[in-house]
Amino acid sequence: MTLAAIEKDELTGLYTRQAFYHHARTLTNFMTDEIFNIVVLDVADFKLINGTYGTKKGNEVLIYLANAFKYYIKNGLLTRYEGDQLLALFHSKEKIDVDRIENNLNKIMEEAPIPNIRVKLGIYENVDTSLQIPIMCDRALMAVKSISKDFKQNIAFFTQEMNQKLLAQRQMENDFKDAIKNREFVVYFQPKYDVSSEQIVGAEALVRWQKEDGTLISPGLFIPLFESDGLVVQLDEYVFETVCRFQKDRMKQGLPILPISVNLSRASIHFSDVVQRYVNIIKENEIPFGCVPIELTESAALYSQQILEITNQMVNAGFKLHMDDFGSGYSSLTTLNELKFTTVKLDKSLIDYITKPREMKIVRQTIDLGHGLDMKVVAEGVETKEQRDCLIEMNCDEIQGFYYSKPLKQDDFIEKLRA
């Protein structure tokens, strides 16, 4: 076998990643006066293509895209960088013409072997050739990742803001272990109020990250990151343990115990032995299962045989299950019917427009549906008196939101319970 054959990907005929790295470094070292750019081509939902059309058709798509890439990319090197990602390093004296690229990309998608294929491009323009080749490639990959879930945008350019965001994410990942050890993750409690009595009947545990220097990191920054890299499994358990200890302390003091629900992420649901680990924590703290309900987002709880088995294990162990964020985009009547939820929580997106006739009908029907399935209904994100009055009229059971209370630190929550 020749060296050239070893360097080429067997399916597409493009360079393998390692061969690309070698030739890219040689090219950038030799052509020091040229302006280089990197483009990565990524197929959205490629696993779905393989699952729907079969691997043979999936391979046909990759070969087609590789040939199209060769046709449009001049003066450069091309590689099959990852399974469904193609990447090119090319030099040009002209600035990248976005309109022309978009037209070419649309043509590629229109002429693809399967209909409705979505292809996205990430571009690192005017490459800093002093960087290592993998880092250059990462910048183009960063760009395409930034639009991976954007159905409107198919082309993105690398920016320094993306780089700063990546560095900040890496720092959060590096700090995670010490943050757990030093208990920098602080549990807040957002009260749930009974609609008729307007008394606190429970709460939801929410996590905040307060670093030792006092810096607060928004959950919107660290939760999605830890969900994507798997660290959320450890964080979920940390919050659950914290709430269990809180309930244990109240029992020891002879104080009233109200259910405080804890979120369980999609990653945690699929983590091995999750049910047994949580059961052990309950038993170690000698508290009733019912005082720490488990909240599953509707996207995480979307019905499948595996989810059915895990949720049945939880219910059989004694846990109460709440469906969180109902109405946020993945609502499934099958999920509500098959999984043993005791409570359904209406997402804030439903409540925001509850005073409008159409949305009012939707919320009313959803509340009636929940009650018809013998479930309590909790409205999240309630912020105004008008929203509260609508929910009272619709016989919603509980309300959670800024109208009554923002999430509270533990001491403030205890004080509110005492009051």
Structural class: alpha/beta
Assembly form of the protein: single chain
Question: Which geometry do the CA atoms define?
Answer: elongated
Task: Write down the Rg.
Answer: 26 Å
Helix content: 40-55%
Beta strands, count: 14
Distance between the termini: 81 Å
Number of helices: 17
For the biggest sheet, the summary is: 8 strands, mixed, barrel
The parts where pLDDT drops under 50 for at least 5 residues are: none
The percent range for strand residues is 15-25%
| Strands ordered across the widest β-sheet | 6-7-9-10-11-12-13-14
Rounded mean pLDDT is: 91
Structure description:
The structure is a single chain. The protein has helices at 3-7, 17-30, 46-53, 55-72, 98-110, 133-145, 160-181, 219-229, 232-252, 266-269, 274-285, 305-317, 333-338, 348-351, 357-372, 385-393, 410-418; strands at residues 36-43, 76-82, 85-91, 119-124, 155-157, 185-194, 200-210, 216-217, 260-263, 294-297, 321-326, 343-346, 376-379, 398-399. The protein is of the alpha/beta class and 419 residues long. The protein has an eight-stranded mixed barrel with strand order 6-7-9-10-11-12-13-14, surrounded by four helices. Strands 2-3-1-4-5 form a five-stranded mixed sheet, with helices on both faces. α12 links the parallel β10 and β11. α3 packs across α4 and α9 packs parallel to α11 (274-285). The radius of gyration is 26 Å and the shape is elongated. The mean pLDDT is 91.
